[in-house]
UniProtKB/TrEMBL annotation:
Catalytic activity: 5-amino-1-(5-phospho-beta-D-ribosyl)imidazole + hydrogencarbonate + ATP = 5-carboxyamino-1-(5-phospho-D-ribosyl)imidazole + ADP + phosphate + 2 H(+)
Summary of the function given for this chain in its UniProt record: Catalyzes the ATP-dependent conversion of 5-aminoimidazole ribonucleotide (AIR) and HCO(3)(-) to N5-carboxyaminoimidazole ribonucleotide (N5-CAIR). Catalyzes the ATP-dependent conversion of 5-aminoimidazole ribonucleotide (AIR) and HCO(3)- to N5-carboxyaminoimidazole ribonucleotide (N5-CAIR).
Entry keyword annotation includes Glycoprotein: no
Pfam families: ATP-grasp, PurK_C, RS_preATP-grasp-like
Protein keywords: ATP-binding, Ligase, Nucleotide-binding, Purine biosynthesis
GO MF terms, alphabetically ordered: 5-(carboxyamino)imidazole ribonucleotide synthase activity; ATP binding; metal ion binding; phosphoribosylaminoimidazole carboxylase activity
Phylogenetic classification of the source organism: Bacteria, Pseudomonadati, Pseudomonadota, Gammaproteobacteria, Chromatiales
Record's subunit section: Homodimer.
Pathways per UniProt: Purine metabolism; IMP biosynthesis via de novo pathway; 5-amino-1-(5-phospho-D-ribosyl)imidazole-4-carboxylate from 5-amino-1-(5-phospho-D-ribosyl)imidazole (N5-CAIR route): step 1/2
InterPro entries linked to this entry: ATP-grasp, ATP-grasp_carboxylate-amine, ATP_grasp_subdomain_1, PreATP-grasp_dom_sf, PurK, PurK_C, PurT/PurK_preATP-grasp, Rudment_hybrid_motif
Binding site for ATP: 98, 138, 143-149, 193, 216, 267-268
Gene giving rise to this polypeptide: purK
Originating species: Guyparkeria halophila
Enzyme class: ligase
Stated name of the protein: N5-carboxyaminoimidazole ribonucleotide synthase
Length: 371
């Protein structure tokens, strides 16, 4: 099959690697000069709203999927009118807008952090007072890796700086986001952050990977650890299945949660393969990339079990010496071929071990090499 992919970053590259191995070929639509996925397929260089390029992608490919969720809605609909776009434009619309997304989750009975919609400084001032405690302002659209977010102090503690709902702080937060439509969320004092990667096929068959624990640094995913038997597995799995059913979703979907008082609070979803699922490449019987390709083609889905204890470390900003990484047993090296830049995800390392003690010691050795 000839698979069209909107976006040509490292996620596209890894989708391509998995798909080429199964006999498929790819065209990636991406405005960048030489995106990572160009190494594994044809690169259609155009903006995501270029009508002619979208038309070509839809007509020349057997089906179209994506690795980047901020595809303009008009572009998604243009493709869906000519060919099969998976996931569908409705699922994308929900995932692209934090207000739609939260309302969708609430409609399914899933708990989200208390939030208010923000369209002005006044909304922030009132929202801070209404939510109580520290909060976090996020743009409704286009946020990733902690970008498009500003934290606001607990008004009770910030009283000396202007009183509850400190208007100065609200105004500067609003300015920091350039007045973009936003949501204000109550800051969650979570015990940990977890996510679940799930996949649904064209016939509605669904499979779910183990719930994983994520640690972030500066808003960017730093480490994912996958263990089977997380006590919250069943709850996360139920949420994922519910979301996929409701959206008539096809492909891989990821959902991020906070664990607060031992319970799941849903944060956001990504309608695509996800960084917190990279461990599955080499760490599970079938990677999220292979399963996404199988799902969109209509092939049976693969087993999602981990092959042992697994962790994934992101390589952000600079790359360590691959030889030093690979000297640690059970490791795999992934380099996306991107130009190094501070805060940029350049690659990742997966490490597997037969038990948790061995995993911890391998992680200690890796941490001495990976900054
Ligand atoms: P992004 O789209 O950038 O991934 P997120 O909403 O996932 O946006 O926020 C990035 C990170 O910021 C989260 O993984 C979490 O560590 C922190 N964060 C976001 N919202 C909250 C919140 N309400 N309470 C506490 N931490 C939060
Ligand atoms: Mg996130």
């Amino acid at each position: 099959m000839h698979i069209g992919v909107i976006g040509g970053g490292q996620l596209g590259q890894m989708l391509g690697l998995a798909g080429v191995a199964m006999g498929h070929r790819f065209t990636f639509l991406d405005p960048a000069m030489e995106p990572p996925a160009a190494s594994v397929g044809r690169h259609l260089r155009a903006e995501f709203d270029d009508a002619e390029a979208l038309e070509r992608l839809a007509v020349e490919c057997d089906l179209v999927t994506l690795e980047f969720e901020n595809v303009p809605q008009a572009s998604a609909e243009r493709i869906a009118a000519r060919n099969c776009l998976m996931p569908n434009p409705q699922a994308l619309a929900v995932a692209q807008d934090r207000v739609e997304e939260k309302q969708f989750f609430e409609g399914l009975g899933l708990s989200v952090a208390p939030w208010v919609q923000v369209d002005s400084v006044r909304d922030i001032v009132q929202g801070v007072a209404h939510l109580g405690g520290a909060s976090i302002l996020k743009t409704r659209r286009f946020g990733y890796d902690g970008k498009g977010q500003v934290r606001l102090a607990d008004p009770a503690h910030a009283a000396h700086e202007g009183g509850p709902g400190n208007p100065g702080e609200a105004a500067s937060a609003w300015e920091a986001l350039a007045g973009a439509p936003a949501v204000l969320e109550k800051l969650q004092h979570f015990e940990r952050e977890v996510s679940i990667v799930a996949v649904r096929g064209r016939n509605g068959e669904a499979r779910v990977y183990p719930l994983v624990t994520n640690e972030h640094r500066h808003g960017i995913l730093w480490q994912t650890t996958a263990h089977t038997g997380d006590p919250l597995q069943a709850d996360a799995e139920r949420a994922a299945r519910l979301v996929m059913e409701k959206l008539d979703y096809v492909g891989v979907l990821a959902i991020e949660f906070f664990v607060v008082d031992g319970r799941l609070v849903i944060n956001e979803m990504a309608p695509r393969v996800h960084n917190s699922g990279h461990w599955s490449l080499g760490g599970a019987r079938t990677s999220q990339f292979e399963n996404h390709i199988r799902a969109v083609i209509g092939w049976p889905l693969g087993e999602t079990d981990p092959i042992g204890e697994v962790a994934m470390l992101n390589l952000v900003g600079t790359l360590p010496d691959p030889a030093a990484v690979l000297a640690v047993p059970g490791t795999q090296w992934h380099d996306y071929g991107k130009t190094p830049r501070p805060g940029r995800k350049l690659g990742h390392v997966t490490v597997t071990a037969p038990d948790r003690t061995a995993l911890e010691s391998r992680l200690d050795r890796l941490r001495a090499v990976i900054r």
